[in-house]
Structure formats: C-alpha cells, structure tokens
Amino acid sequence: MKRHWTSLLLSVTIIAGLLAGCGKGGDDGSENISAKGRYVEESIELPVQEGEEVMNLAKSEAGNPVLYSWQMDGGVRRYEYRDGRWEQETLGWIGGLEGWQEIYLQAVHESGDGTQIAWGIDADMKTHVAKSSDGKTGEELLIPYLSQEGEFGYPTITELEVDGKGNYWLNDLYEAKFVVIDPDSLKMIQEISSVQATSSLQKMLFLAGSKDMAANTEEGIFTIYGPDLEEKGTFDTKQKEAVQLCNAGKNWYLVSREGIARIVPGNETSEVIMDGDMGEMGSSLNYAAGCITGGDDDFYVMYRQEKAGTVSLVHYVYDADALAVPEHTLRVFGLTENPTIQDAILTFQKAHPDVRVEFGTAGKEDGITADDIRTLNAELLSGNGADVLLLGGLPADAYIEKGILADLTDLMNDMLSEDAYLEPVLKNTVQKDGKVYGMPVRFSVPLVYGNEEAKEALDSLETLEAYVDAHPDKSIVGLAERNYIRDFLFQMYQDEIMEEDGRVNQEKLAALLTLEARIAAGARTEAFDEMEYGDMGAGTARTVLPHGMFSNPGNVAILHYPDSIATEQIAGVMDMMVPYTIMRDMNLTPDTLKDFYMPVGIVGINQSSKQKELAEEFVRYLFSPEVQEKSLDDGLPVLESALNKLKDEVDTEYARSVVVMSALNFDGEEDIEVEAVYPTAEEVADLIDRCRTLSRPVTQEFFIWDSYQTEADACLDGRTDAKTAAENIARKVDKYLSE
After folding, report:
1. Which of 33, 201, 356, 672 is the most exposed place for a label (fewest CB within 10 A)?
2. How far apart are CA 406 and CA 400, in angstroms?
3. CATH number of the domain at 36-43+54-324, out of 4.10.910.10, 2.40.180.10, 2.120.10.30, 3.20.20.110?
4. Please, what CATH class does the domain formed by 443-603+633-738 belong to?
5. Mean residue pLDDT across the chain
6. pLDDT of residue 309
7. How confident is the model at residue 10 (pLDDT cuts 50, 70, 90)?
C-alpha cells in the first residue's frame, strides 16, 4: 500500500486597510515604537533521510520534541531532540509483532511514563493498535470495537490518544464520535459525539499535559475531559478551519493561519502572542501537523507541505531583545490576495528580521467597488499609499501618465543580466515608450483545443459571427456557463472593441453582445444556473477580477460535442490534468490563443515611496529562485530555470497518487465523466515551449471590467438590448476616463 497524505484546503481572508495598513511609521518607514520582546521562529533541520517519511511529532517523558518516522523497508525510527542534537533509535518491537509488517502505520504516540502506542491500518482498512512499555517489546491490543463491521466496513479511526488514566481515545471519522476504551478490559466505556470532520487529517483530540483530553465536540468548540471522563469545561477556538492545539498548565495554545494564540478555558477572549503574518503558519504552502510546548514558554510546530511531500519543524522562542514591532515597515497593496506574494513576504521577513511587510487588500465581503478604486487613486495622487503596488485591475496606464509608478527598466535589465527570464512577459505587461513600470511575478497561459474549423473561427469577431451564421445548430463552445461566454469573448475581441484612446466602439460592442446571446442560447447555459458546483475559478461572478476567464466549467462536454472547442487557463501543472486527459482521449493538440498570457502578481513601485531601496529589494526577491521555484498553483514562474523544473513535478509520489474526477450531469443528457491523471513530462515540456512564444498580456482595469459585466449581464438576461447595453458601457467608460 502506498503512503499518501491528503490535507484540507485552508483559506484565510485578510482584512486590512485599503492602503496604509496599521503601521504607525515615520516618513522613512521606521516604526515609532521601541518596545522589545516578541516570538521569533527558528527552523530545525530534520534528521530523516531519503526513503524515510515523518509520521508525527510527539513529546518525550523529559519534555523534548520527538519525531517518529516510517521507512520504505517497514522500519520505524524515533528521534529525540536533546540540547540541539537529534538522538536516534530504532523501534524494532513494532516490526517484531506478528502481521505488523503489512500494517500501514499511521503514528506512534508516547504517554507521560514513556509508554509507546503504535497504530495503523491493514489492507482491509481495519485499525490495529499495539503497546510497548519499555520500547523493546510489545503486544497488539485486541480492541473489540475495532473488529465490529458496520455500514462503512470497519470503524474508520483517524486519531488515537491516551489520557492520564490510560484510557484509549479513538476518533471514528464516519460515525462522528469519540470512543473511549478501557485500558484493562479493552472494552468501550463511553461514546462522545464529535463535530463531523471534513478530512482524515483534521485533528480533533489533544492531550493536556499528561492527563486531561480536549475533544472537538462542536464546530470550533473543545470540551475538556478529566481522567474519570468528567467534563471540566470548554473553550472556543473561534476557528472553522483545522487547527493544532497544545497545552501548558491552565493555558491552551492554538496554532492557525492567524498565528499562535493563548486560550484559557471559560474565557471568551484569546490573546495572540505571535502574528501569523510573521511566521511559517501564514504560508499557504504549509499546514500545521503537530504542536508541542517546550519547557520555557516555547513551542515546536511541525508543518507539512503536501504537494512537495516534505515536512519542516519550527521552534518558536520568545526573544526579549527583539523589537516588539520590527524597525521598518514596507507596505504592499493589491485589490485581491496573492498566494505567491504572501508566501514571499514571510520568507523575506525571516531574512530581514528588522522589517515587517504589511499586505493590504480591498478584500471585502461585498466585493470591490468603484469607490474603492477612486479612494485608492486619490491616496496615490496625494503622494501617499503603499510602497509596492500589485497592479492587477488598477489603471496602470493612468498611473504612468500621472507619475505614480517608478521606472523599473534598470531593475529589470539587471535581472536579465543575471538570469534567464521570459523576457516578453516581463517587458510587455506594463510598459510605455520602451520603459517598464510593472512586472508579473507569475502568469497563466490560455489554451484552446477541439475542432479545427471552430478554432479558426475564433480569429476575429467577424470570423466568429460568420461561423455562427453558417452553423446555427451547433454550439461552438459545447456546453458552457453563461459567465464564461460573457468574459471569454470580451477578452478575445477587446482589441477590436476598445479604441486606442480607451473609448468604446459601440457598434462592435453591440455586435459582440448580440453574438454572446446567440452562443449562450445554444450552449445550455440555463442548466449551469440550476446546477450546484464548486468554485470554478475567479471570473464566474461580477466584481471579481477576471483571473479565470478562459476556463469553462463545461469543458468536459467536448467529449460529447466533438465539433466544438474548449479553452482552459493553465496556472500550474495540476490544471493540465483534465484538459490533457481529454486531448489524449480525443487525439487533439492544444494551441495558444492570440499569444495571450495572463499576468499574475504584477508588481510596481510607488514613485513617492520613502523606502524605494527596500521596495526594490523586495521586488527583486519576488523574482529569485527561492520564490519562483515554489509551487502555489497561482501561476507559472517567469524565471526560465523554475519553469523548466515543472517537468520534475510529474515524477513525484504526489503526482502518481492524485486522480481528479470531472463530470457533468444534466437532465436529458448522458452523464459526461473524466478520470484525469497528471500530464506526462513530454506534455509539460511542450507547454513550456509554448510559453516562450507568448507576448500579449491579458489585462483589465477593474472599473471597465465591472461596467462591462454589469451591462452584459442585463443584456444576456433579456433586461436590455445589445445596443442600449453598449451605449451604457460607453457612457460609463467615458466618465471614468474623464476622471
């Protein structure tokens, strides 16, 4: 059986000031706060070797961190961290148990007296538990509950803990309950209802010291049970996501994306002792997989990086001499969040402990508004605002004209002299008169595949209209969601609709809106309105920047509509899985669309920044191998060496174990299903070659995009006609340009 870890996809919404954030710095960006003392993090090098996989973090009888690892040959090792060094021993007793050579080991835990408890799953998904009191000999515990078969087979156990009385606590995932087993009779002595977990890795049991147990009994609520199973109180983590908890005396400590917080049972408030924006817990690449307290108000947290298949261990120590707030603050602003930028901020801060980087967004529950953009523009024109700007959705051309953006040409040329990048992508995104004012940290590539005649029809608005006229009974996009038709076609023909002065050609826009309505009528868009499906990427709703406009939720329908085309926006190797599986099945080849690329994380520097050198250092860091080689699936790297390494991703255990199911189920239609696997190295290499031909950026100003979507929706819904919608859009754009 292959070992395969899966994790929850966690998300966090950062609510921040539109521009200035919460820093109270002086004119030079330095803080006016001189208080000292804060938690800092130290990475600890792990002792594991190739072919060895860390299972879990535990705490020794002496209070030291302990790592248990599983080896390809079935062996188990225990590593204890003493005085800055790892001490290793082999747990031979587990392999010596009859039949345990075939057990898929999950974890090994230690109780306060040094007793080791190992548990795992066999090929029939039955859980086995074994115990050793001396670390040398052991026995399997034949717990009757684990042999009971129900509707889902044997109980699906995802956690095992031991309380101060020796009781075994089991988390039964599908039954949504905790089962407490007596250590002597091995019989069940109590059942406790749990919250319904959404992942097998969602930890729901935590030991307090060496006796009490905290169990996740309601969403965000943990109930504390004493050794006699008496309830001793509750505490609210105020978290809907998976968390890690550890305990020291009366206090519990919560590790989440927001940082480390101290919680006192019965107290409604919690105290954040370390901000997640300053630590590894804030990275979208990490999820906390274990946490213990040290002996001096310190913490050890183990993180997993699922896609990379790696594990890291971080020590959080209170440093009384460190400034409570770093001396300098660098402010970054973008309309929306950006995983690569946010992750880079964490690593940049680690290398610059005297710098705090604040990332502010306009992320509000009710979406971005035109007033938000006007407020931002006013701040920038007054010489204030963030030091670094993410220009996606912002009026970059106007900022250049008004002198808001600094010239990055010399910085870009320095980068190009030191390493190989996709030069057209860097140069063409935000430029004027041969000077560069913004560069994308990543990009995605739109691809089209399908019927050759239909692909050729996309060449211009005129050829598309001629194709629809000639094939009135065919849908050129197969089955498609309405918003995809709206956004994809506007982007394809925007250069025909928008004049050089930025104004709208109303006649061509009205023709486009008319054509969109005709195509939508044949693509069964109403069926998508009735379906419940997950988020198919940004761009499927108004007031969202169009990062996913080339991805149609109905792409799989091309299997039943071979005369149509499908388009996909590739931001990572995983995005290739479904379209390339379809292309293999149908013997199709992909093409790029008009040499388009979608820039992601377009960074520019505020000309009025008081910290221009620090801003330039941060921008340069965003294009370093350390940032470019990380895989956050928010875009492809612009650094050539990092782009070439994408081929290595297909030859990983993660890639071999991942399968994606894509399906469409419409009334009156045969079910359409695809079981997709990772692309081949040759397919990734071909995509990389195509990326080198891209030269035309797909960019949109938020205000123009929002105006178009608003009126196009009214037209497609039949609330207005195409001519009126085009007039309304033109009027809004004219007013915007005059401002």
Report:
1. 33
2. 8
3. 2.120.10.30
4. alpha beta
5. 87
6. 78
7. very low
